[in-house]
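User: Second chain of the day. Same drill as before.
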Amino acid sequence: MKLRRLLQSRELVVALILLGIILLIGFINPSFLKPDSLLAVLNSSLILMLISIGEMFVLLTRGIDVSVGAITGLSAVILGTALNANVPIPMAITLALLVGLAGGLVNAIGIIYFKVPPIIMTLGTLGIYRGTMLIITEGSWIERIPQAYKSLASSSFGGIKLFIWITLIIVITVTVLTRRLKQARYFYAVGDNEEGAYLLGIPVKLTKFLAYSLAGLFAGAAAVVFVAQIGVVPMQTGSGQELRAIAANVLGGVNLAGGVGSPVSALVGAIFLNVIDSMLIFLKVPGYWNDAVAGAILLVVVLIDYRIRQTLTVRQRQERLQAKTIAERTPRSLVVKEIE
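Assistant: Same format as last time:
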């Protein structure tokens, strides 16, 4: 029974496949299994992890946000501009997070109060945020990031990068809150049955408002990590990350129909996609294969997960049918005698 429950967990299935891929790469290129290499892969996953966790809240409520990559880019531009203007690092980081939050709030207001469909609203703001980036920078990269800020990316504690610790703490905290806090379960209730949630007294509008706001906030946090790790702010910052975030969530087990998923889902999916990218580098496969290989593996994983779930569902039905048949064939006198 425990094994069956474990196999029904998409996160576990993906994690096992991920482990198999890591071991396979290590067999071909043993240097991949070195702690430094594995930590480097984890470190490179942080940006996508943060964006994916924010996107997870939106997907849980049966919504979608394709502007999170643009929000990351705009937050990075604001952060880089502030740092170049000699704004203190804590204040610059706070400003980037507020810009991310503001981007999410704009999406929430349009979707919830003006009834704009999520895909239309976030596609529109995607263009607005990208355009704002170009207006602020006049199409130029921001390159003069202070060394004091870039050194944050190389700071470590116990041999592990500071940003890895911070991100893992965020993941653990959000996971605990979504499982233990009653209000956090509202995201699942709204995504599972919005009308039913409303009838139960759950604040549906507020819950969806928070979902899009959190998506923007986490996108802003991703910008904070990005600028420190990369050391420059290109105009392509965050481009395509919204689709990768959605793919990471789906891969990890977040249901696009809403109501199913967890921060661990986003975490596992993000690491999986980055491992694929790193695998191709270690195997010396040209970079233009990345999207094709990642897409193919995503389909394979989803199909494997579907087959496992289908098999388990069929077995459960057979067991229930068998138990019902036995109960119908058992004489009532024997049942009464057993009860006595």
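Residues 290-329 form the longest helix (40 residues).

User: Great, on to the next one.
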